Amino acid sequence: MGVSQGQETGYVQEDNRTMKGTIREIITKALDGAIAGGALKTRKPVILERPKREEFGDFSTNLAMLLAPEEGRSPRDIASILVEGIAASPVVARCEVAGPGFINIFLKRSYWYSILAEILRKGEGYGDLDTGGGEKIQVEFVSANPTGPLHIGHGRGAAVGDACANVLKAAGFDVTREYYINDVGRQMETLGRSLFLRYQELLGMPVEFPDDYYRGEYMKEIARDFLTKYGTRYRDARPGEPGDDSLPVFIEFAKDSIMSGIKKDLADFGVGFDVWYSEKDLFDKGLVEETLKELEGRNVLYEKDGALWFRTTDYGDDKDRVLVKADGSTTYFASDTAYHREKLKRGFKRIVDVWGADHHGYQPRMKALFKALGEDEERLKIIFIQLVSLSRGGVPLKMSTRAGEFITLREVMEEVGKDACRFFFLMRRPDAHLDFDLELAKKQAPENPVYYVQYCHARIMSIMEFARERGVDVPDVVGPDTLKELSRLDQKEEVAIIKHLAGFEEVIEKSAVEMEPHRVTFYLQELAGLFHPYYNRNRVVTDDPGLTTARLLLCRAVATVVAKGLGLLGVSAPKKM
RNA sequence: GCGCCUGUAGCUCAGUGGACAGAGCAUCGGCCUCCGGAGCCGAGUGUCGGAGGUUCGAAUCCUCUCAGGCGCACCA
Q1: CATH architecture of A3-107
Q2: HEC secondary structure over A83-108
Q3: Strands A301-304 and A136-140, bridge-based pairing
Q4: Does domain A449-569 fall into CATH 1.10.730.10?
Q5: Nearest-nucleotide field for A430 (CA, C1')
Q6: Residues 348-377 of chain A: which lie with beta carbon within 7 Å of strand B?
Q7: Domain assignments of chain A as residue spans, ordered by start
Q8: In chain A, what percentage of residues exceed pLDDT 70?
Q9: ipTM at complex level
């Protein structure tokens, strides 16, 4: 029923299919036809690409070259057979054989207008795909230990994890965002003791901090809160010592306080989680023990030197790993084993972990776990986040690349703003080092890509406001009466913008499949890079009603896609700046 | 020593089998009686770290090699 089935093309763009899929189908049908007619006999999947050079068409396929070896004839011969079938499609303007045997396809302009109409009809829903088919997928990210505030590295992980989750959701997956809290073990005891010492310090008692204690300023604040709540009640406590049960009090207080800070940081950063999963719960529910039993039943455990080992080397790891130490306590890996087994039991078909790159040594043992449990290791995807190097006006901050370890997410967020912060984190591939220049991120100037993209949206909103003030009707969708006006968008720049808009779905699909949200960031910069020059050379609101309508529709589509794309990144699309 | 990641224009980086390798910034020179100048126009730049190999075709795949980062716990 969409306006896209306008008589001009006789073409119906079906929902739930990307344009690329549509073109691929045209080629497949041409191949089927050739086979049915006896001209060809080999069937192969169609690989489509968008050529960089426009003289090579809107789409191009190497199908003929792939078929050549088995067909026993030249790629160009095969291509010329296929070209006939492809050219017969009502959306194809022309189709030709080029170079060694490429088939270059040029689509009719009317087809592009129908795509534009389709984009407008879908509105904010444009970009939503069903690639994932509703499959349950879990993205676990940040999962910072509750021993201190989030630093800049966690921020990058948060931005990437959240954007991945957004993109996966758009691509049709059933996404659960999860944060794993390491709230058990020795580090928690250290945290509790650290609080106790700060508490005693506030009470004027002489204290000495061991090197491995948490000594940040934030601990002093927590100690003040503790003092407010408990007064001098624990003044002479001996946490952790026999006969004294105060340690859990300190631990709980510190942990809760830090976690609420982390939650606030994340909320202000625009990141929300569906599940906060506690490591302690794994133990309380007996899941760690249950997992050990299962592994034992699978004959992958053994005892040595008083410890219980997991023979991960049978599944590709460098060395076997300890699950239960000689002193009877379990390792972090034991918890993680139980946790990931639980993820599988909870029905997630695919599991995504976002880790700091310094944890890459853990990948083989986690993969080993999946294999030992008889699961396809491909169900686990680990995204590694490389370090962030902070600089200010080109000057590196602190002395090492580890500056990011000491600067909190909140500090950066407050200095440069949430939008710039998130956008910058998503300008690079996750596994590439990131140079984050605070001055640049703050700068409200053209060299700052965040504003360049946001400005595109604000500018269009402003144009529409201008039109309304002039009494011009600003349409959101193409109606039967306005469809014909789209042909007024006949400039090269206008068609180029429509073509770029049409590629949005492919970008989302690729971002989701590869879990590389930075592709969206690049896409948006390109889109803004097409729109601004166009705007500068052409007036949208003119005395010509038909032309004005057509251009307003084009603007609407650009604004919608920019807003949608920024939304996926967790960046706002302002109406005014 | 072993493993993982990275090496592409002056800088920061896209680009993972296609046709003469792209963008932003920086540099230089232009554009405001005009819907937002946070914008636009024009100009130059490459041994894709190196060497072999696979392929009709390689920045992309394989092998070796050089450089940088990170990891190699009965820590979390």
Answers
A1: 2-Layer Sandwich (3.30)
A2: HHHHHCCCCEEEEEEECCCEEEEEEC
A3: unpaired
A4: yes
A5: B5
A6: 357-362
A7: 3-107, 186-267, 449-569
A8: 95
A9: 0.94
